[in-house]
Write a structure and sequence with these properties.
The complex is a heterodimer of chains A (85) and B (375). By secondary structure, chain A is of the alpha+beta class. Chain A has three helices and five strands; from the N terminus they run βαβααβββ. Chain A has one domain: Roll (Ubiquitin-like (UB roll)). The longest helix of chain A is centred in the middle third of the chain and has 11 residues. A four-stranded antiparallel beta sheet of chain B has the order 3-2-1-28, with no helix packed on it. Classes of the chains: A alpha+beta (85), B mainly beta (375).
Chain lengths: 85, 375
């Protein structure tokens, strides 16, 4: 599936969009971390919570649960929250 | 001696300043990690070339960057400090940022310690690549539920800081917590004892409870590891081990200045000499230079008396702050002193604080300044 990467994480991916696979969001993030070591912990804390100023959307809907199932046709957008200023 | 460098960590990145032989001209190398919040940048004195940087951004989680070539290239820790995953149904703690980095004992190459917010202690055995919690501290029942979250204590969270390793004994550790006093281990972190006797707390709190103590910075005298100095939220202290009682030596400071501040620096060869950089701790705690007139204060008699050192610093209208990690010394003779300000300037003295001059200006807010001798 297509994953949009925010500018703050493109030092890991080298691209604004990458292709990755996973049956759910947790698996997708693991796959991204295997290919781009360290990227997951910048987005998700050790308790598997998205960090306070990070957001994830699947097909335009915000997702908080890493168990959210995914299919190859889904589009995942990871963005930095608009946190003021 | 190798090349003297100043490691400057700021709210928006890090800089390395390299000195000429007489500490007059400094060459800037940076920014490194532009836009990252760098809480601490530290060189490993055991090899003279490994740097660790504690980093995060406003959005991205915390990590540790490592360089083995003095900052020419960086890699990221493969396992930064992080708490264990909590059991199902429990909230669990998450590291907001690594605040403090300390190289381990000379006999333990590759060992580093890290203090975080929320307050916790981590250790690396592989030069900062992977980190594990020191369970004797982090999971200690005596501390359970009292180590604070990211919304407690200082504005961006209570911090575990002042990680000190006794140069005579790798097993002997000290640490300070902005929400929790001073603690000591003699078995490399397996067990801990509080070291708060004699320390004062804010009026109305119970001084016998370690969680109410707020040490800002603790330093150990390199020339006498049994002597520690402490800048606390409630005064300046000294302790001479094996005594367990701190003495408030800040009482001798001028009343109009007080004895509140963040940093404290010990002389590398004289245990009677230490420096502080006071701030305004009155009413709402402005945490600025008292009366807008910044100055270092030095004692050369173990705290019996203090001498103001403001020659060259702004005489008026300077409302900045020097944070707890932002004052450092070198080991030259005479000793050089360096302070980084919340307004983004570095001030330097090459004569033990008697005269100051600007070394760098217009940087982001400075969180930490360390000296280093590069290989």
């Amino acid at each position: 599936m297509n994953v949009l990467i925010p500018s703050a994480l493109q030092s890991y991916t080298g691209a604004a969009e990458v292709e990755a696979a996973g049956g759910n969001l947790a698996e997708l993030l693991v796959a991204l971390d295997e290919r781009y070591p360290g990227i997951r912990f910048r987005m998700v804390d050790e308790q598997d919570r998205f960090r306070r100023h990070m957001r994830c959307f699947v097909n335009g809907t915000q997702v908080f649960d890493l168990a959210r199932s995914l299919s190859a046709e889904d589009e995942v957008i990871i963005i930095q929250a608009l946190s003021g200023g | 001696m190798g090349e003297l460098a100043l490691l400057v960590a700021t709210r928006k990145g890090a800089w390395i300043y390299r000195s000429d032989d007489d500490r007059r001209a400094w060459r800037a190398d940076g920014p490194h990690f532009l836009g990252h919040i760098i809480h601490h940048l530290v060189l490993d004195p055991r090899d003279g070339r490994t740097l660790l940087a504690a980093a995060k951004t406003g959005h991205l989680g915390p990590t540790i960057f490592r360089s083995i070539d003095l900052g020419r290239s960086w890699s990221e820790a493969s396992r930064p400090p992080a708490f264990p995953k909590a059991a199902e149904g429990e909230a669990g703690r998450a590291v907001d940022h690594t605040f403090w980095l300390t190289p381990g004992h000379a006999s333990e190459p590759g060992v580093w310690y890290a203090g975080t917010s929320p307050q916790a202690l981590f250790r690396s055995e592989d030069c900062g690549d992977t980190w594990e919690g020191v369970t004797g501290f982090n999971d200690n029942p005596a501390y359970a539920g009292k180590l604070g979250g990211t919304q407690d204590g200082t504005p961006d969270g209570a911090k575990l800081h002042s990680l000190l390793v006794d140069p005579r004994d790798a097993n002997h550790l000290y640490l300070g917590m902005s929400g929790g006093g001073v603690h000591e281990s003699t078995d490399r972190g397996k067990t801990w004892a509080t070291l708060i006797d004699g320390m004062e707390v804010v009026t109305g709190f119970d001084a016998s409870q370690w969680a109410f103590h707020d040490p800002h910075c603790v330093t150990l005298c390199p020339s006498n590891p049994d002597r520690l100095y402490q800048q606390n939220h409630c005064g300046i202290y000294r302790i001479d081990r094996p005594s367990n009682r701190w003495q408030r030596i800040g009482r001798a400071m001028p009343a109009e200045v007080g004895d509140i501040g963040f940093p404290i620096v010990a002389h590398p060869r004289d245990d009677q000499t230490t420096w502080v950089f006071p701030m305004d701790g009155t009413d709402v705690w402005p945490r600025t230079s008292p009366a807008g007139k910044p100055a270092a204060y030095v004692t050369r008699d173990g705290g019996e008396s203090w001498h103001r050192q403001d020659n060259g610093l702004p005489g008026d209208g300077a409302w900045w702050t020097v944070y707890r990690q932002a004052m450092a010394n070198d080991t030259c003779d005479p000793v050089g002193l360096y302070v980084g300000t919340s307004s983004g300037a570095v001030w330097a003295s090459t004569d033990e604080g008697e005269h100051w001059r600007p070394l760098a200006e217009h940087l982001p807010a400075i969180y930490a300044v360390e000296t280093a001798v590069l290989d």
